[in-house]
Every structure is written in C-alpha cells, then in structure tokens.
Amino acid sequence: MNAEQLIAKHAARLDRAATACRTRECWSPFPELPGKLPDAERVQREGKAAFEAHLGRPFALDQPGEIGRLGEEVSPYTGAPLGIDYPHADLDALFTAARRSIDTWAAAAPALRTGVLMEVIDRLYARVIEIAHAVMHTAGQSMNMSFAGSGVNALDRGIEALVYARDALGAVATGARWERRFGPATITLDKTYRLVPRGVAVCFTCASFPTWNAWPSMMASLATGNAVIVKPHPATVLPMAITVQVFRSVLAEAGFDPNLVTLALDSTAEPIGMKIVKHPDCAIVDFTGSVRFGQWVEKNAHPALAFTETAGVNTVVIDSCDDLDAMCRSLATTLCMFSAQMCTSPQNIYLPATGVRVGCGADARTVAADEVARNLAAAVAALVEEPRKAAMILATIQSPQSLALIAQLRDAGNKRGRVLLDSRSYPHPEWPDARTATPLMLAVSTAERDLYGEERFGPISFCITTRDAADALDQATRDVKEFGGLTAFLYSTDEATIERAEAAYARAGAQLTINLTGPMPLNFAAAYSDYHVTGLNPAGNASLTDLAFVASRFRIVQSRRPAPATA
Amino acid sequence: MNAEQLIAKHAARLDRAATACRTRECWSPFPELPGKLPDAERVQREGKAAFEAHLGRPFALDQPGEIGRLGEEVSPYTGAPLGIDYPHADLDALFTAARRSIDTWAAAAPALRTGVLMEVIDRLYARVIEIAHAVMHTAGQSMNMSFAGSGVNALDRGIEALVYARDALGAVATGARWERRFGPATITLDKTYRLVPRGVAVCFTCASFPTWNAWPSMMASLATGNAVIVKPHPATVLPMAITVQVFRSVLAEAGFDPNLVTLALDSTAEPIGMKIVKHPDCAIVDFTGSVRFGQWVEKNAHPALAFTETAGVNTVVIDSCDDLDAMCRSLATTLCMFSAQMCTSPQNIYLPATGVRVGCGADARTVAADEVARNLAAAVAALVEEPRKAAMILATIQSPQSLALIAQLRDAGNKRGRVLLDSRSYPHPEWPDARTATPLMLAVSTAERDLYGEERFGPISFCITTRDAADALDQATRDVKEFGGLTAFLYSTDEATIERAEAAYARAGAQLTINLTGPMPLNFAAAYSDYHVTGLNPAGNASLTDLAFVASRFRIVQSRRPAPATA
Fold it and tell me: Is A388 on the interface with B (CB under 8 A)?
C-alpha cells in the first residue's frame, strides 16, 4: 500500500470518529464482546493459541541495545510464572535509536502518520484476543473485561487521540504569503510553518490496566511526530510487548524506522523509572500508576512535559433515591467490578445520619444510613456468593499486596469502626489457583479519615456517616480536592441537591454520574463521549481526550524569506 | 450594553482575526503609527496629558488588601523618578478576592467572556497614547515603538489569544444525548460538559517590554475563565497599572467582579516572585523575564501550569548574499533597534573564515570575514552617528545595569578579542538626561564562547569567525539549543545551504528569517502570522499563539444522568 492508499483506507473511519468526538454520541467500530467478532469461534481459538505460544519462551523483539533478558510475570489466574523473557535494553541505546528515527517520521505529512497509526489500530484489533489473554494473565482481568476495556475500548481511545492530534496539527497553516507596507516599500514574505515534534516520549504503563491509557498516549505522541519508548510495569509486560511488536512492524512496512517504538523493561528489584524520566533525551512522559510516583513525575519531569493519570478516592454521595434496591445493585456491581482495581472504582460512600429518603410522594420513607449500608453490603454479598458469577465480575487480584492491604484494613476496621462485609477468597470455577478476594466493606465515622483519606487499591470501600446530605457532599468533594478523584456518584431525587453537587464536583474536578441504575456499569467511561480525568485535582493532570492532551506534544517553527520577484 | 449587544459588537472583528490566524496573512484593525490615528493630533495631545497627569501622584486602583504604597519607577528619558505610588497589596487578600471572583465569570458563556475582553481591547486602544508614554518613561522605548510594539501590536496579540481561546473552548460540546445497549436494555444518558477554569493565574511582566506578552497571556487566562493577578517588574509598573485599571472597569461595567484582575506589586528590595508562584492558590503562571527566574518558574510552579518566555542568544549566520551593503544595513538596523533590548534582537553573528560570497555569476566575489564585520560595524556607526536618528532607533537604556555590562564586555573584548565598534553615550536631542548607549560590537573567536554563550542584555553583539559556513550553522544552532534562542537570521544565496539551515534551526527551535533586506525590521514579529517562541529550547516553553497556549488553561468536567423517560 502506498501513502495515498493508506490514508484513503482509513479516512472514513477517522472522519466518523471525529464526528463522534464533536457530538459525544455513542459510537464504536468494534463489537463489545468477543463472541460478536466476525468468525468469532475461530478467532477466539486462534487468539488463545497465539497467547499460549508466548508462554515459556523468549519474546521476539528485534530492537537495539539488548544487554540481557528480563521477565518476572506471574499469572493471577494460575499463580505460575508466564516464563516469558523480554529484551533488557540499554537505555542510552534506546534513546539514541529513538532520536535517530524521528526526522523521517516528523517530515512525513501528518495525514500519512495518522494513516499509519490507524493501520496499527487495525493490526492491534486483529490480535485483540491474544492481547486480551495477555491482559488476563498479567493484570488479572476477566476475559470479557480484557476484551472490552483493555481491547476494543482502548482502541477507541487510541482513535480518539488520533482525531484530536489531527485537529491540532490541522489548525496550523503550512505556509503563507504575507505582504505589508513599510513606509514607501512593500515587503512580501513567503512563510513556512513546520510542525516539529518534542522528541522522545516515554510511556509508563501500569500493572492492572495497561493498554487503556497507553494506546491513546502512544497515538498522541506518535501522531505529532515523536518517538515512544514504552516502560511497562514489570508485572504486566506481555500486552505492551505485543503492542510494541505491532507498532514496529506496521511502521517498518510503511517505510519508517521501527525504532520509533521500543520497549524499556526493568525489574521490581532494579527500577529505572527515575532514570528514564531524567534522561537528557526524554521530552514527554505519559504516566499511569501510583500517586506517589505520578506526583514525582509531575514535579521532576521538566524540561520534559508530563501527562499523568494516577489515582484518588472516588466518592459516592447518597442523599435520596427512587429505588433503594436498584441503587444498591448498581453500586454493588461497581464495587465488585474487577475487584475495584480500576482507577474509576468508588471507594468512599457517604451516607447522611439523617437518613436516606426513598421513593416520592405518599410512598416516600426515610431509611436509616445504617440500613442503607447494610442493604448495599447485602447486594455486594449476593453478587459474589456464587463462584461462577463472582469470577465473571470480580476476576482476580493483580498483586499479592492487595491481599495484605485487605488484611490490614480489616484489622483497622474492627478496631476503629465496623466490618460491614468481610473479604474472603472465593474459589474460581476454572482456575483453582487464582488469587481472589471478595470485597471488604467497612463502616466508619468521619473521625477515621486517615483510613479512607487515600486510595486503598483493591476491593476495599468505606461507608461513612456524615451529619446530613450537605455534609456528605462537603466531605466527598473535600476528599477529591485533597486526595484526588476521577469519578463520583450521586443519588438524589432533589434537583437543587443535584445542582449543588454538579457545581461542587465541577470545582473538585471529578466526573459525576447521577442516579444511574440498571445494567450499565456506573464507572463505564465511553471513548468519544466521556472525558477521563479532569486535571483539576491530584488524580492526574491529563484528560482523555481533549486538545490539551495533544496540542503541546509538537511545536511550530517557522522560516520566512522574501517572495520571489514576480516577472 | 447587554450581553448579546456586547457579543454582536465585536463578532465581525473577532471572525476576521480568526481568518487571519488561519491564513497567517497580514492583517490588523489598527494603524501602525500614532500619526495615523483618527483625529491624531487631539488624541496624541490628550494621551500625553493623561500620562502626565499620573506623574507625582498616587495611582488610583481600588482593589482589596492594600497594606501600603509602593513605587520606584525612574524615567530612562529624564533620569527622574515618576513619583507615582501604587497599592502594595496583601497577597493572600488578592488571591482570596481573585478566587471569589471566578465562579460567576466561569459560569458566563465563553462568547460573553470573549465579548467583554474584546471590549477591553477597545478601551486599551482608546488609551494607547497614554500607555505608549507610560512604556516610554519606564521601559525606555521610543514613542513610535511604544505605540506600535507595546500598543497596537500587543493588542493584536491579545486578539489573537482570544481567537485561539474561542477555538479551544468551542471544540467542546456543551452536552450530548448518549444511548447504548447493555445486554437486553438500552441506557440513555444526558451528558453535560462544563468548562472549568484552573483558578488564579499570575502574570509576570518584564521591565523592557511589558504589554506585548502580558496582554495575550491575560486574554488567554481570562477567556478560559480564570482570574489574573498581574505582577509587574517594579521598574515598569505604570503600563500594567493602567492595564489593570482598564480590565477592572470593563469587567465591572459588564456586571462581573473587578477582582478578576488585580495588581501585585513588589519592590526591588523585597521581591515576591517566588512567594506568589508557590502560593497555594496559584494555578497558572505566565512569565516573561530573566532566564534564571524563568527556569526556576518552569521547575517549581507545579502544580501550577507555567508558560514562559525568557531570552536566549539569537544568532545570525552569514554564508553569502546578493548585496553586502543591503544586508549590513538591515542587520545594523536590527542591532540598533531599541538598543537591542528586545528578546528578538540578534547577538551572535557567525562569519566563515573562508569568506562571504557576495553577488552571483561573473560579478561574484568573496569578501573576507573581517571585512564583512567591519562593513557591518560601519553600517551601525552610520545609523547612530546623527543624534536625531540615533534617538529614533536606539531610544534609551532601560536599566543602569546594561551600562555596567557594556563596560565589562568592552574590557573583556579588548583583552580576548577586538572591539569592532565601541559604545558611547549619545546626546538625545529632546531629553538631555536620557540614559543612552550606542552598540558595542566585539570580534572574537569561538574560543571565547563563555563571553557570548549567554544573553548579554542590551546593545552588545559579537562577530564570531568560524571555520566555514557549515561550522557557522553548527555553532549557531548549538548556541540556540544550549542557551535558548527565539529568532535567527540567515544570509545565503545557496538553496542547499538554506534548506540545511531551515532544518537545523527547526530542530533547535528558533524562528528563522532568510535573506531579508529593506525597510522591515528583521526581528519584526507580526501577530496572526509569526509564531513567537517555539518552546523547543531554553528561551521559553510557550508560543504566541498556538492552541497549546490556551488549551490547558481550562479543563472539562462532565456530569451524566439518565435521560427523562419519553412520554
């Protein structure tokens, strides 16, 4: 395929995606479930086989600077090492190769770069089942979530980043004829505007949800002409190694230097995070991961740009509702989803001591905060009672540290509050050695803020009783401002309360979902429609996806000269 | 005027400016010379009187937190203090007032905010002569430059920032209806997207060119819903005090809190720069000034965003030219313009030891580097020989420190190179006590890089002989990358050399002007057409004006809720 063909092949889909970004309507070119793939059975069989072929083998990645091999992944489903090793690359060699790769790429027309990257989307999609299995056996997600959240939705977020990059690049004229009088003379200049990439971007990916942030970040950096070095969490490498492999092969086929995308792996014992951020050639950092390192990156990346998504305490405010059971079911589902190992999972649930008004009109009644908490705990317990259903929704626990944290907080809860629902391991019906835990729910007062005043990663939540609904909103939004927060959830049948909450959460910078019940997971974030992270609180400084996510990844350099004299 | 009328009043001009930003053609709604103002004579007389009315008086600025009065301005033209004092405000009081002012402003429609700010442009324009005199007697510019560079061009840069802010804000939908199937059910959500400002912006302005960077920065922050505290250099307060007064009165007339714009003055003895940047309510910093403090701001502003323009060494590479005299005249003019106290003034002039090829074809000859340098020095000398002409172009020296620096570098030049052209004071024909200095030009070799390897603020330049033209380009672009650089100038009749230079300066990140001769000042930067600062080298991280200059000054916060059931 030549350049024109590549651009033409993907133009319609990119235009359609641009429309969706503008209208924020629901759209995706991909099916939401693996069973809905064309030729689903064969594709699923072959994808699984492709994943299994990686196990116990060196991963083939022909990139520069290999000084050894690394690999320490362990499946949360089997408890066994994946036995895959990857290149351990010399950092300087990667940066040098990346730097050298940029000039040709940056000189290509933005439309060609976007075309090449849309081709990457297609190729990742072709390997989506293999990638989903890789996510499952590293991050610990269920197959359906791996496919949707770490597969097709992540691809959608990638396309979305390309739309914004195209907009930002397209806003700059390529040249101009400029003419003005200076005194008696007229000066006519021809001006040329070049879009110059910042240089080498580094993309950190996290252990529990690697592709969803990585793909849009990589697309944003590459579309604007930069090279990308991927630095995966050592626990979750395979999805990113496959990603790097796909980018490299598509870039090479299109005639570009594959070293535009490389993998920089480290080990838990010898992390390279700080070194890579402070490397003199590091020009952009995309970081998803812990608050602590994310804050370090924001403070220390200079002169590199930093785009971060870390974590926070996502809050729920319950004022009143139409249907107590429906609300509890929805909240319970979200508390269970992937064992709350998502940056969008709620943690702090605020309940007014004055009670929750349920229903309206003559049927309205006030339910005590305690009873609401018990109902919620019962809804969670019901969801995870049956191992097959538990497996579907909870999946596994990515890190053994989460189990230790559950134990620690159970103790604290017993001492300083009450355990509303205890956590236990559940037997996974297909994977007997899976690392599992049902949700731990604690009831505490606002005096125990040190317990819930930070992200407690994993299936841990707090029901916190406040003076009244107004206090609940105050407490919740204060948490967000102080500790960060991405999502927020409100139940209220009172429009004035809703309006106040919308304003308060807007100031705090959390994306608010109001009165949602039914089958949609409360924390579901749709590409092209839902903005992810506001940048207004410590949970991260970058948003998927707005113009700010792409606009500073390239710069404009001009040259100007007298226009040739006309004959 | 109500909101609709205000928006309608300015719509056509803003649309016209948007077209210019897109095409990068030459456009301005303002005349370039004070004499071309409508009713010029009266307007100039009244503007001068308005300026003079400030002298020796307290400046009326009814803003909160006044704890005393400050004022230490001295006119570079008269050597006498202006005798104006301004409020010395308590920082916490300013931040608190600014924070309180934001909500109503942020809730206003973006189009209304833009309309109000276009009205500010009109009101600043109405006081442009008064402002020009204020710039003259603080920054030391000539009347014509004050009017053009610090008056109408600065207004153009302000309008340009409004265009980009409008684009970035307008790219976000205000709401959406989103509908998707989840299993057997359909979920329909109404989504609302709010544009939320970051908070309180601080705008640092410099002593020598205050309004040109300040107005676009203020417009960018305010249009996106933020408040602005202006922190002027204590030597150049009056232009910014008038600015703050104009913003405040227009905001108040439009029904907004005037504390959206306030003035935070400090003194040379007790600077507040670091304190204001590290204030917990500081959300955005715009900084124009020294490299040292600018770098500190970039590194330490977090969590505030930093937009900087500092300085660098602007370079000239002379390879070959058609007309030696025309080239030398143009370079000489630019070396003299406002005594090279502009961030765009050239400093390091690279000449090949192999000589400069002049003319083409049979008439071509090679002129020794030394002779070119002597010609250039002669062209400068000719420009400043006659006091009246010198006054027009050199104006005055803003800071006594520049005179000390000239003396220091004259000594160094005598010891380590050669003084090509010595600096002297020239007698200003209208202002006998004016602080003046003609340009100092030194000839040095590349061994003296420590002399020219940083910005030497004021009328100081270096002719540096290199091995050949290729070496000249290498040296020059290395300077830019290492020490920063905003503008660059090339003379070459060879297209291959031009192409190499364009690529090299694009990588280094300096805006390149090629082979320009004639009446246009080489370092003239046109709003709507010329990008100012690339952000690719230490001379600053922000560009006037691209989407990146505005896109991150606001964030997007959404709320979503089930759509009302249809009847």
Answer: no
A:B CB pairs within 8 Å: 220
> Does a cis peptide bond (omega within 30 degrees of 0) precede residue B210?
no
B419: which strand partners? B442
Q: What is the pLDDT of residues B425-440, one digit of tens each?
A: 999 999 999 999 999 9
pLDDT of residue A501: 98
Which CA distances in Å does A295 have to A116, A341, A544, B396, B488? 33, 20, 18, 46, 37
CB contacts, 8 Å: A200 with chain B? none
Distance, in Å, from the CA atom of B549 to the CA atom of B157, rounded to the nearest integer, reads 12
Given the structure tokens 């006519």, which residue do they identify?
A188
* DSSP notation for A346-361: EEEEEEETT-EEES-G
B545 secondary structure, DSSP code: T
pLDDT of residue A567: 52
**Rounded Cα gap, residues A23 and A17, in angstroms:** 10
Residue A360 has pLDDT above 90, yes or no: no
A238 and A134 Cβ atoms separated by less than 8 Å: yes
Q: For residue A336, what are its two tokens?
A: 């269970």
Q: How far apart are CA A523 and CA A334, in angstroms?
A: 7
Per-residue exposure over B180-192, b if at least 16 CB sit within 10 Å of its own CB, e if not: beeeeeebebebb
Q: What are the structure tokens assigned to B140, written together? A: 């030391």
B493-551 pLDDT per residue, tens:
999 999 999 999 999 999 999 999 999 999 999 999 999 999 999 999 999 999 999 99
- Select from B342, B90, B81 the least CA-distant residue to B210: B342
Q: Whose CA is closest to B236, among B373, B395, B73, B54?
A: B73
Give A302's DSSP letter: T
Q: Give A551's contacts in chain B (Cβ within 8 Å).
A: 546-548, 551-552
Provide the pLDDT for residue B567: 52
CB A30 within 8 A of CB A125: yes
Average pLDDT over residues A238-251: 98
Contacts of B28 in chain A (CB under 8 A): none
Is B193 touching A (CB cutoff 8 A)?
Answer: yes
State the amino acid at position A33 in one-letter form.
Answer: L
B404 Cβ contact list (under 8 Å, min separation 6) = none
pLDDT score of B53: 98
CA distances from A212 to A218, A243, B154, B375 (A): 11, 12, 43, 62
Q: Which helix (H) or strand (E) holds B241?
A: helix B238-253
Q: In whole angstroms, how far apart are CA B265 and each of A419, B65, B69, B402, B405?
A: 56, 12, 9, 23, 27
Burial class (CB in 10 A: 0-12, 13-18, 19+), A36: exposed
Calculated CA dihedral for residues A23, A25, A29, A32, nearest 10 degrees: 160
What residues contact residue A566 under an 8 Å CB cut-off, 6+ apart? none
The ipTM estimated for the assembled molecules is 0.97
Report yes or no: A360 at the B interface, CB cutoff 8 Å.
Answer: no
Banded pLDDT at B361 (limits 50, 70, 90): confident
Range 147-176 of A in CB contact (< 8 A) with B? 167-168, 171-173, 175-176
Integer Cα distance of A295 and A308 in angstroms? 8
C-beta atoms surrounding B425 within 10 Å: 12
> What is the distance between the alpha carbons of residues A266 and A134, in angstroms, rounded to a whole number?
19
Q: How far from chain centre, in Å, is Cα B107?
A: 30
CA distance A552 to A540: 17
| Number of residues that make up chain B | 567
Q: Do A101 and A256 contact (CB within 8 A), yes or no? A: yes
Angstrom distance (rounded) from CA B31 to CA B38: 9
A251, A261 Cβ separation under 8 angstroms: yes
Q: Please name which of B111, B299, B273, B105 lies closest in space to residue B199, comparing C-alpha atoms.
A: B105
